[in-house]
Amino acid sequence: MPINKAISYIEANLEQPLSLKEIADKSGLSPYYFSRLFRALTGESTMSYLRQRRLTEAARKLEMNNNIALINLAMDYGFDSQQSFTRAFKRTFGVPPGQYRTDGRSLRSKFQQPLKQPYFLDPGALPMKPTIRIKKPFNVIGMSKDFGESSSDNPVDLWGLVCTRINEIEGVNKDRAYGLCLKGSVENFTYMAAFETNSISTVPKGMKSLTIDTAEYAVFTFTINDRSPIGDQFSAVYQGIWGNWLPNSNYNYAETPDFELYDHRFDGTTDTGEVDIWIPITKK
Fold first, then answer.
1. Confidence of residue 251 (pLDDT cuts 50, 70, 90)
2. How far apart are CA 125 and CA 245, in angstroms?
3. What share of the chain is helix, strand, coil (3-state, %, to 5)?
4. How many degrees, rounded to 5, is the angle at CA 226 between CA 38 and CA 154?
5. Strand 272-283 vs strand 215-224: parallel, antiparallel, or unpaired?
6. Domains and CATH numbers, the chain
7. What is the pLDDT of residues 20-33, one digit of tens each?
């Protein structure tokens, strides 16, 4: 599985300079596709995972060697200065590295151990078989925001803002809402909460318009219930799509916007009901 190859490569090169492209190349995937897959399976970005693994190994060395210089640790694990290493270490472990060593702390009780075993999906995360569809061009208007490892915002908050201004959108179809994942930087993603509209000639202030061209999609339909957080349910389905179905299918990810479609089958007041996830594809 591509994710296992990438993690093995990371583990073998923790003290070497690594870039996202280099890690993705080892998996045989494009950086953007790899980033989506890695985040779906591990819950964090590739470079965040790499940084946490390096900090974990640095903490381990502090436990084993009282004489090791902090500047050497910083350089060994890819930090450009002792100061940046100290700040990152404190964010992760709650104390600077010098105090960590002086206090005799142990990461065994403070930090999740590295993911070294092959990653297997929870069978419950496997999605149903998709339908393959061609979708003609359509227009949306809404609001977008970049979401990355440093962002504390939630796409749900973005939906709240858009829904309060829905009546400002001319020609809006209130029964067709789209949560679009747009291609921003490879480590972050841009999410757009939008509604379908028959015209984008007038765009309300603070909103954006977007036209999605004709494309072929794998469409996954699943039902959201009220028994667990909606984010966890989406995460499970995306794990199945990115980590299981797509790598084993006859398709490649087309790297154009993928999206969630909320129509009359979804109840926005209870956040329950059927949702479609549309993944753009091309034949291998």
1. very high
2. 11
3. 40, 25, 35
4. 45
5. antiparallel
6. 2-109 (1.10.10.60), 131-283 (3.20.80.10)
7. 999 988 888 888 88
d(CA 254, CA 245): 15
Q: Are 108 and 84 in contact (CB under 8 A)?
A: no
Mean pLDDT of 90-113: 75
